[in-house]
Design brief:
3 domains, Rossmann fold, eight-stranded mixed sheet, 16 helices, AB_hydrolase_fold, alpha/beta, transmembrane
Length: about 425
């Protein structure tokens, strides 16, 4: 009995060893198969390759292999950004109310028109609910007109905010009747638009002499912004401040007059998807020059708009909620929204939206009424899509903040004197 015991133990140990070997071979085979499977897909799946890379390669090595997103790709895959004053800005614009006209009834923003002796037409509106504390000279962008500032919702809201803050609004029309762009000639005497505006102001002050002493500010959009940067150097009717919307200061002005400390305070309102013309980088560089010269300046970025079912009826008052929901549905169904519901494509560069938003529909179609509403608002929808995309288009956002910034700046400068 005592001699058989070791044999049993020996056989038991052998069985355990075989079992361990079998399990080991099985696990090794399974692991090898898995690795082979993953490596096969590594070459064919971008998403999986990213996962595998993050597991098997160090961060430093992986970062060397990754190709950074191009500016265009980054724009397409836009994600919400955080920036100074963002939350305050959202609340400010959302709760903005207009005392001088009814935003939901655009026809209530009335205005006057004067054509002076030099054939200069000025459209203007004075505040009705508050005293005039400043003049705001407004310059439109290319392909647009002065009249749009009293007949399109985003522009109306800019004027509405200005009126509530005590700005009397004067809107000018460029002399170029074809492109409707403003002259960027730095020679004030050769610049037809500069001479037109100065002569127009001279005639305007003859009619309203009590306004000569109030401070003058400008609001220039795109081409009108560059023009504003030139007008700012005139000495006949000095400008106390300017808002440059989705635009830049003409480089010749920036490096000559700003650096000579002979330039008014400036605010830029710019769109974060613009990486070429009025980009954030370019504006920061301009601001640096202003700060070096101790000239007050500020900038207010605008994010693209996240598309929601009510966005069209909220921003274009004449579009009803049913039409707004349907427009949202069409953009969603045709895969024009990214995961954060921002527009994926620039409506100015990809035109497929025109086919699915403005199709030819028979009158007896089940959604004929909605499609009629969409077609009746073709111009408004086309422009607002550019506002939604947020690269280079008019938007009322941040304008009230910018105008109020100038009002506070002027008040503080008066107290100091």
């Amino acid at each position: 009995m005592c001699q058989k015991e070791p044999r049993k133990r020996s056989r038991s140990s052998t069985r355990r060893l075989r079992y361990v070997r079998c399990v080991s071979f099985f696990m090794l085979g399974f692991f090898s198969s898995t690795i082979t499977f993953l490596i096969t897909f590594y070459a064919t799946s971008n998403a999986l390759s990213n996962i595998i890379s993050s597991i098997f390669f160090s961060n430093s090595y992986n970062s060397e292999l990754q190709v950074p997103l191009s500016p265009r790709d980054a724009i397409k895959n836009y994600q919400p950004r955080d920036f100074l004053g963002k939350r305050k800005s959202i609340n400010y614009d959302y709760h903005l109310r207009y005392n001088d006209f009814n935003y939901r009834k655009p026809e209530t923003l009335t205005y006057k028109s004067r054509t002076y002796s030099n054939n200069t037409e000025i459209l203007f509106r004075f505040p009705k609910t508050t005293a005039i504390t400043a003049l705001l000279l407004i310059f439109h962008s290319c392909k647009h007109s002065a009249y749009e500032w009293f007949h399109t919702p985003e522009r109306q809201r800019i004027i509405g905010a200005a009126l509530d803050l005590g700005y009397a609004c004067l809107v000018f029309q460029s002399t170029d009747k074809i492109t409707k762009c403003w002259s960027n000639d730095v020679d004030l005497y050769q610049n037809k638009d500069i001479q037109m505006v100065l002569k127009g102001l001279e005639e305007f002050y003859k009619e309203y002499p009590q306004l000569v002493s109030v401070p003058r500010y400008t609001f220039g959009v795109s081409s009108g912004g560059i023009f504003s940067s030139i007008l700012a150097i005139n000495q006949q009717y000095r400008i106390q401040g300017q808002i440059i919307f989705i635009s830049i200061i003409l480089p010749e002005i920036l490096y000559t007059y700003v650096k000579a400390q002979n330039y008014p305070p400036t605010v830029w309102i710019h769109m974060l998807r613009d990486v070429e013309f009025a980009s954030e980088t370019r504006i920061k560089a301009s601001k640096q020059i202003f700060m070096e010269q101790n000239i007050p300046c500020n900038n207010f970025p605008i994010e693209p708009l996240q598309v929601k079912p009510t966005i069209f009826s909220e921003r274009v008052p004449t579009i009803d909620s049913e039409t707004s929901y349907f427009l949202y549905y069409l953009l969603l169904r045709n895969q024009w929204l990214n995961t954060h519901t921002y527009l994926l494509y620039n409506p100015r560069r990809k035109f497929a939206w025109q086919d699915f938003l403005f199709p030819q529909i028979e009158q007896n179609h089940t959604r004929a009424r909605i499609y009629k509403s969409i077609n009746d608002h073709k111009n408004e929808i086309s422009e607002f899509l550019n506002t939604i995309y947020g690269e280079h288009e008019i938007s009322y956002e941040r304008s009230s903040e910018a105008l109020n910034w100038f009002k506070e700046l002027f008040t503080s400068s008066v107290k100091k004197t």
